[in-house]
Amino acid sequence: MLLRYVALPTEDVRALQRGEPDAYGMVPEKRVSDGDGVPCRHCLKNVAAGKEYLILAYRPFPELQPYAETGPIFLCAEECERAPETDVIPSMFRATPDYILRGYGSDDRIVYGSGGVVPTHMICGRSHELLQRADIAYVHMRSARNNCYQCRIERA
Asked: What b/e sequence results for 95-131 when a residue is b if at least 16 CB atoms lie within 10 Å of its CB, and e otherwise?
């Protein structure tokens, strides 16, 4: 089975870059990157030093429900190209030692027992294990330190 690392949809990102409200109904905040630790969830690259970026609340679920976590993410303030959907973990993620992986069912609810902190070099293997389960439709990759949403991992 091949994996797909999936960045945020371009249509959603363009709306936020135009100043449309985030998941909390607020206009995204604009800041200037120092070049360290500002990962855009659309191009899956760090925002370069001196470039503007957005901080906003994002909910990677189609509708409100008890498991629809909302949290802070960063995006390039200017339009950027969406990262290709690939079976190779994007290079932006490789420098961090570990991430939380958590499986979700087709009902967009957490599949209990599927979540855990996974060393970066084991993300591919653990994602394969999770996605072989019939009760898991997709996996979220989140920051192990702050629980921030990074990307979605699906079956290719």
From this structure: eeebbbbbbbbeeeeebeebbeebebeebbebbeebb
1-24 burial: b if 16+ Cβ within 10 Å, else e: eebbbbbbeeeebeebbeeeebbe
Q: How confident is the model over 12-25, as pLDDT tens digits?
A: 999 999 999 999 99
Return d(Cα 46, Cα 104) in angstroms, integer. 27
CA atoms within 13 A on the CB side of 69: 15
% pLDDT > 90, the chain: 97
Radius of gyration of the chain (CA): 15
| DSSP SS3 for 131 | helix
Task: Phi first, then psi: give them for residue 75, nearest 5 degrees.
Answer: -140, 150
pLDDT in the model for residue 36? 84
Q: What value does the mean pLDDT take over residues 1-30?
A: 97
Compute the C-alpha angle 106/1/61, nearest 5°: 25
| Strand 138-143 with 116-119, pairing | unpaired
Q: Which two tokens stand for residue 99?
A: 């991430």
